[in-house]
């Protein structure tokens, strides 16, 4: 029997984390010829994840360039994927989420009439400029895709509202939970000795990530000032902030936050140490997307420093609260969780709406079923 040729395409660290467990499963799956292509929209951070999961790309566009713009990425991926797709002729490509690599790879496949499967489909914030350009990348990819692997029922409903045929949508849970559960270890030791010296049992460790484009400027200044004030008010609090490589973010962080006994500005972490730091933290402050899915799996409350989120299921479940980017609002919500154990436990114990560690398994079953390789009907992920 002819094998199903499946090409997985990604280019950034977040995509790699969420797609790595799926690629591993595809490589093991009977009846599937798995091909891995990376664009290296990110280079160093992408390679960290490839090394962690022991993945060797079959194709690598290596497009990253210092100071690259969205237009630069778009042109390079579109042209680079054209040649690779013509050479390999996959039966279907799989892309993930909302990056420029995702949208443009889907467009390149469409131009050659190659079916597209969209992993983590159906997320919507309702504002095409927030997050930017991710929200529009999601929508455009959804318009190009033939198969939609929606993490949740809410994502499924978003796609149905956009007139996507229900028979082409599968509710799978999110692959990030599959990845997370593979790398978290109870007695994990960090390479950075500063992280091993932190008293996670007796200190309330706040893990922060902050890098979103829409928060550059005054919003990020507000966030950094709020965190400084929180450490001054609460002597049992320590903050760990893996600072993004963007020079403007690093400069502002150093200027406002500095390095104190309560403030640890560290280099970006590989996925494995970051996941284990997430597991040890007391509370998460973030403007990122994926962490809103990961932290609930570990029982960690999350305050989202944005004005909206494309992951409303987490808000509805009670694991996430959107607090905006105003200094006083951030301080108020952090104070509430630090001082009120009832509020903290309500968020920490809420059911994770994003997955159970079997998303990759469901995606492969759906692929085989939809493309005629198997008669096994895929089951849907549900929190009920």
Automatic annotation (TrEMBL):
* Molecular function via GO: UDP-N-acetylglucosamine 2-epimerase activity
| Keywords per UniProt | Isomerase
Stored Gene3D superfamilies: Glycogen Phosphorylase B
Q: What InterPro entries does the annotation carry?
A: UDP_GlcNAc_Epimerase_2_dom, WecB-like
E.C. no = 5.1.3.14
Enzyme class name = isomerase
Q: What sequence ranges are listed for the domain UDP-N-acetylglucosamine 2-epimerase?
A: 24-368
**What does the sequence similarity comment in the record state about its family?**
Belongs to the UDP-N-acetylglucosamine 2-epimerase family.
Checking NCBIfam families in the record gives: wecB
What is the protein named? UDP-N-acetylglucosamine 2-epimerase (non-hydrolyzing)
Q: Which organism is it from?
A: Natronincola peptidivorans
> What is this organism's lineage?
Bacteria, Bacillati, Bacillota, Clostridia, Peptostreptococcales
